[in-house]
Amino acid sequence: MSDNRFSGRTVLVTGAGSGIGRAIALAFAAEGARVVAAGRRIGPLEETVALAEKAGGTAVARVADVSRATEVEALVRGVAEEFGSLDVAVNNAGVFRGGPVADMPEEDWRELFDINVTGVFLALRAEVAQMRSQPRGGAIVNVSSQLGAHMQRPGATAYAASKAAVTSLTRGAALEYIADGVRINTVSPGATATTMSLRPGESEAERVVRMKDESPLGRVAATEEVAQAVLYLASDAAGAMVGTDLVIDGGATL
Prior knowledge:
Layout: E1 10-14, H1 19-30, E2 34-39, H2 42-54, E3 58-63, H3 69-83, E4 88-91, H4 106-131, E5 138-143, H5 157-177, E6 182-189, H6 204-214, H7 223-234, E7 245-248
């Protein structure tokens, strides 16, 4: 381990079974944290735990659906009871449903908001309640998107609306709870090396070509790059960062 910024701290990561969530969980484990990898399916979570342990870290898997209040409350309560505190929470769980908004099935719209927005609200509510009861407080990082508060893209209107809500929710909650010692911020990734950034029918090689034209950086972000931004916001070094929305999109929204 090259650094131990989070040694002795307990970190909860939702949506930790793949993609950005997995990279975040592994990055925290590599820096000494006790990581609770949460998600809806145990198989992918156990893979994340195995990767963390193989690298010398500490992690456990916990199944929870963030859109269900009872499951979220039980998850946070269980973390605090098992490890004694909840020091950092990363609300990363999210889904993408695309298509022109007027043609979108109502069930897709509801799923987007149930998971992307209500899921963050329920997690925040439980996490803040726990953290404000702790002498050291805690840090929360919500994962939003470049789509929403920063830009729009045809075919992603509903998703963008859900992520804009996450950005606004974060800013308001950050003001409400900083006096209680709970620091809340957001990261907003652009196109990242996950399946979510692939267009329908597009291969990874085709994405490489497309991004050379679409992004000033000329490529997608690595999941590890997003993870390092999350770790910074959660660290003591970012103690004055409150309600910040850190955009990680290779300059696409400039």
